[in-house]
Amino acid sequence: MSQSQILRAYSIKEVAKKINIPTGTIRQWEKDLDGLLIIPRSKQGARFFTDNEIALLNKVKELRSQNISKTMIRSLLEKYMQQNSEDSCEPAEVDETYASYSSFESYEPLDMEVPPQEMTPYINEIQTSHPEDFQLSIDLFKQELLNEIKSEILQSRQDIVDEFRNEIMNSSLHTVKELSKSIQRANDKRKADVLEISDKISQASKQTSASFTAVSDGLLKDSKTHYERMMRQIQESAKANEKNNKIVLQKVTQKVKDTQEELRYVAQNFDAQQDYLIDSINNLKESKEEIAKREEIFQSMLASYREVAAAKNKKKKWWQVWSGKNQ
């Protein structure tokens, strides 16, 4: 097996970028075409792709772009895979590629210099024929793996920050809108109540003014009898006005109480939303601290790997000097 075949595998993000399809769409296709589109996984459960899976994904993409149904796509893929299986001459090499990639993914950062048992036959073969190329390939693979891990950590951190930011922004916007609506409703209701009260007071004032005008005219024109009758009318009118004023006052008092209750309810809702925002901010801070700890652990692992790699290089140079002297 050649060196390029051992390392010829792609992550789901690389495949998504390669065929210009979101990772979520690829996962959905895997579910829809269960049994046909089989994506191999590493020992840690991570998906990896070879040219065969990429070719199938491109075929599915082409069919989906033509608005072909899932049932028809499944039928066409079965025929397509049957033709490929008949034309394929090296299925064993593909399986060996999967096993090789899985073995490489199972390395721990501090044990990268020790090859796994699954890779021993291929490593011995390449070490014997091209030891320098093999070492260069291993170093390149390690560097790519570290870069991918770092990229995944950074992407995860960015996703978490973006998610919390969007949640806080949406929650704040929702809170402001709800408060604005509540305040607007309270203001509209209060304005309507004030207008109603003003109309009643105006009507009562008009009635009182008309009554006093009638009394004044009666005093000038009529006799004592008329005067007494007018006095009775004044008293009745005063009682009626007093009763109306009491009713109006009771309504005003009730409206004020209702408005106070609404304002208290709005204030309680605002306090609850404020507490929720504070909790969200605290959760975001804790997430940032957790991400910082993970970054620190990753940097420590990277430093340990560099120290091991440096020790390995020193060991190799010493062996070469000793070997040269024996010759």
TrEMBL record:
Repressor recorded as keyword: yes
GO-annotated molecular function: DNA binding; DNA-binding transcription factor activity
Protein name: DNA-binding transcriptional MerR regulator
Domain of life: Bacteria
InterPro entries, sorted: DNA-bd_dom_put_sf, MerR-type_HTH_dom, MerR_fam, VASP_sf
Pfam families linked to this entry: MerR_1
HTH merR-type domain location: 9-79
